[in-house]
Design brief:
The structure holds 2 protein chains of 2 kinds. By secondary structure, chain A is α+β, with helices and mostly antiparallel strands. In chain A, about 40% of the residues lie in helices and about 15% in strands. Helix content of chain B is about 25%, strand content about 20%. At the A-B interface, helix 4, helix 7 and strand 13 of A face helix 1 of B.
Chain lengths: ~625, ~170
């Protein structure tokens, strides 16, 4: 399947790296441009590569699993800075335990650097005998010993690798959580960035791979450089518009928590409520600005400066450097009823250092707190920890137990789905996950009335926070993740600017209308669904929400007592059918044959037939 | 004249748009290696420190050049590299660093010749597009060399403002 076309084209670096850690072998293979024309790059291209290269039924933590780290055709152009990771996820699970696709995204500087080094992506397979890291310096690729890094935090690892190589090296690394195979371990980058979701760090840890470092000096080949330069300037102008970005530039996403509470869609008390009332002033985003903020930071090529960097100046957590965002602070804050902002930032920094997914850890802790409150998990079971709501020292103690897989920590390290199934006693009813992946908040959150939480169900990567709640939004994210461009610019750039850039960089004229854009996105999304179905997803059985959403009405805030306070099952069912229909799926959520043909996805039909899901 | 870098807080956001537009102007493509301005990252932080020629009045780089490729024009006040004469020996860079200046000279990744800020003929692109207003364009300073410091030093001075974040990694 690969290597048929070997011709340089702008935008793409033209080759990818295949790394077999078992044999210690590195191979450079040409990128199949035929596939690139159909699946763009990043997320889309990896869907197809996973379909072709990964045996159905592979165990996520076995050496056979693949970890793909990809860029796309406009990475390095505009604010194209996203590294997209795909793999079979150890955290996901259908109702009968089949594992599904894992998806994680990070911004920062890694993706452009990989492109500058001359690669569109890396496919990692096998398992190294002892800890290693991968160092890519343009054409030289080395698998280096990482014995001295094993056990270190993700931040230390990054500093060390930079010392050993080049201060301008960009590093993806895992912390001890990934090494200890905590199911929701993250891949960290640039100290406080993370491609965290679905257990990306766990897969890396299972391969004994401590980090991936890259340094590139080759630039990006462009088919039509003048046009690209012009579009670059357009992009810079759009990003500089004050009305588009003032709030984002000043506060990043930290203020979003206040809006979420005021408008009643934030997570509170393990997603029981949505409205935090006056407490939002104790730990909301404005506290960050007055207490900790030092500066704002950007990813490559972006003028939005939405990353907040700061330091806790006083109190027991003084000296903690952190860069919190909406998701980490919401899940470790209000969702655990934490009103001590310094404690919240310290927990978020702990996740970055030790390589936890802050969203999942926040959900695990809040679930355990609710269990403690209801007497399902007693103090004895928790190893003497009095896990009351908002108790930051107790949260730290329990997180360290999870990190070491000690006592109850061993169970909690499996994520809320497995933990709640083993603990039982109705705790499944408030285990807030979809397909095993704990809920994130970004953009949607606990929006029961507008039924937006159904995006967690439609997502093919479980309860991730960036999937999108409308068809248009989902298409946008799919495309931005495939071009690998930050989706925060979606509002300012729309579909047009990235498409023009894609056309100018490649000279292909792939996307000329919004309809083209939507078709590409549709193909990418349906292939994800088909891949998951091949792995055992049955949408009519597995596309479900936690009972809490349907059964427990909100009691606080503006929505309390209104019909909006729950999401009725019938309503959910009809919304789900509407989505299936819009996506060309039958009432069981299986993509229809004519749609698969229309989208140029005939190759999935035989597999779906064999499974008996397709007529 | 010089591109003046505000080494203060909040300061540079590390977006590297300056590197991008510089490489667009001087190389007609996007490759930070062609840029005359370079952004370094330091921990704790990351603190982002842009380094660009400060047009020191004594320009030690020029006197270190043995081939005569690097010159300073007293009339236009501009540094100039004759790319065909430059042999990429890096003596200019060494002189810059040895004097405790920024180490602002970069080298073309393929051709090897020195690259140094030429102020884009009077309208520096990096200043035009800096989103965090860290870069400014100023009339010549009598003390240009005072502003030309190594990025490590600048980063540690900024970190001093971050009490008590002193994280040492052994």
């Amino acid at each position: 399947m690969r290597g048929k076309v070997w011709k340089m084209v702008g935008g793409y670096a033209g080759k990818m790296l295949e790394v077999d850690l078992t044999r210690g072998r590195v191979e450079k293979t040409p990128l199949d441009l035929g596939l690139a024309r159909r699946f763009i790059g990043g997320r889309g291209l990896m869907n197809k590569l996973l379909w072709d290269m990964l045996e159905p039924g592979t165990k996520p933590l076995s050496p056979e699993n693949l970890l793909m780290i990809f860029t796309g055709p406009i990475t390095g152009l505009l604010a194209g800075n996203q590294t997209v990771l795909r793999f079979k996820s150890p955290l996901t699970a259908t109702t009968v335990g089949s594992k599904l696709m894992g998806h994680a995204v990070t911004g920062g500087q890694f993706a452009p650097e990989l492109k500058f080094a001359g690669y569109d992506g890396i496919v990692i397979s096998g398992k190294a005998e002892k800890p290693v890291y991968l160092y890519i310096k343009d054409d030289d690729v080395e698998i280096r010993d990482a014995d001295h890094l094993w056990g270190r935090t993700a931040i230390e690892t990054e500093v060390k690798i930079k010392e050993e190589t080049d201060p301008l090296t960009r590093v993806l690394s895992i912390g001890p959580a990934g090494e200890n195979l905590i199911r929701y371990a993250s891949v960290e980058q640039e100290y406080f960035r993370a491609a965290a979701r679905c257990g990306s760090g766990t897969v890396m840890g299972s391969k004994n791979l401590k980090g991936v470092a890259t340094r590139g000096t080759q630039g990006i080949p462009l088919e039509n450089p003048e046009e690209c330069m012009k579009l670059e300037k357009d992009g810079l102008k759009l990003m500089a518009e004050p009305e588009a970005a003032y709030a984002r530039r000043r506060w990043g996403t930290t203020l979003a928590g206040i809006a979420a509470s005021d408008r009643s869609y934030g997570p509170l008390k393990n997603w029981r409520e949505t409205y935090w009332g006056g407490d939002v002033e104790k730990a909301g985003g404005l506290q960050w600005e007055s207490r900790c903020r030092v500066k704002n930071r950007s990813c490559y090529g972006c003028a939005y400066t939405c990353m907040q960097l700061g330091v806790t100046r006083t109190g027991p957590y003084a000296g903690t450097i952190d860069s919190p965002d909406y998701d980490s602070t919401e899940l470790l804050g209000p969702n655990c009823m934490v009103t001590d902002p310094d404690g919240m930032y310290a927990l978020s920094a702990f996740c970055d250092e030790y390589g936890f997914d802050a969203i999942s850890l926040g959900n695990v802790l809040s679930w355990a707190m609710e269990c403690y409150e209801k007497g399902i998990l007693t103090k004895d079971v928790l190893g003497g920890i009095g896990l009351t709501w908002g108790n930051v020292p107790a949260m730290f103690e329990l997180s360290k137990k999870i990190l070491r897989r000690e006592g109850i920590g061993d169970l909690l390290a499996e994520g809320v789905k497995i933990a709640s199934e083993r603990v039982g006693k109705t705790s499944e009813k408030f285990a807030m996950h979809c397909k095993g992946v704990e809920w994130g908040v970004g953009g949607t959150g606990n929006n029961r009335d507008s039924r937006e939480c159904y995006c967690y169900v439609m997502s093919d990567h479980g309860g991730v926070h960036k999937y999108g709640t409308t068809i248009e939004w989902q298409n946008g994210t799919a495309m931005y993740d495939s071009l690998t461009h930050c989706s925060f610019q979606r509002g300012a750039f729309g579909w047009e600017l990235p498409s023009k850039m894609l056309n100018a960089a490649t000279g292909w004229d792939l996307i000329k209308t919004e309809e083209d854009w939507n078709t590409f996105a549709w193909r990418i999304i349906i292939l994800e669904r088909a891949w998951n179905i091949r792995e055992g997803l049955r949408p009519e059985r597995d596309d479900i929400l936690p009972d809490r959403v349907h059964e427990e009405p909100l009691t606080l805030g503006p929505k309390a007592g209104m019909s909006a306070a729950t999401y009725p099952r019938e309503q959910f069912e009809s919304d789900k059918q509407e989505w299936y229909k819009a996506r060309g799926c039958d009432e069981n959520g299986i993509p229809k044959e004519q749609i698969l043909k229309k989208l140029d996805l005939e190759f999935v039909i035989p597999d779906l037939r064999r499974l008996g899901v397709l007529e | 004249m010089q591109v003046f870098v505000l080494h203060t807080l909040p300061g540079c956001s590390g977006c590297r748009i300056c590197e991008k537009v510089c490489s667009m102007r001087h190389g007609g493509t996007i490759n930070p290696e062609l840029s005359r301005i370079k952004v370094y990252q330091f921990y704790p932080g990351p603190l982002d420190i842009p380094v660009v020629c400060q047009y020191c009045s004594d320009h030690p780089c020029v006197s270190a050049c043995l081939t005569g490729a690097l010159t300073y024009d007293d009339e236009t006040f501009l540094m100039n590299v004759d790319e065909s004469t430059c042999n990429g020996c890096r003596l200019c860079y060494d002189a810059c660093v040895k004097k405790g200046r920024g180490g602002c000279i970069t080298f073309h990744p393929k051709e090897g010749y020195a690259q140094i800020c030429d102020l884009c003929g009077g309208e520096p692109e990096c200043v035009k597009h800096c989103p965090s207003d860290t870069l400014e364009f100023h009339p010549p300073s009598r003390v240009g060399w005072r502003l030309a410091k190594s990025p490590e030093l600048i980063a540690s001075r900024i970190a001093e403002q971050f009490w008590p974040a002193k994280k040492e990694i052994e």
